[in-house]
Amino acid sequence: MSEKERPSFEEALKELESIVSRLESEDITLEDSVKLYEEGIKLSKICTEVLEKAETRIKQVNEEHIE
User: What is the distance between the alpha carbons of residues 24 and 18, in angstroms, rounded to a whole number?
Assistant: First the structure.
């Protein structure tokens, strides 16, 4: 997935929330559940990467301004 195709943190989180709601539905097949789970894992990784980058930036800013 290229950077242009990659959703923003907010978009990924919103889609992840939608997937969770659909997985909680009683009307979902096992096959659809597995597909949604796979997509959820991908979105979760995107969110984690963005949060880790933000944490690193915050630490760098704090180190620069504390010294």
Answer: 10
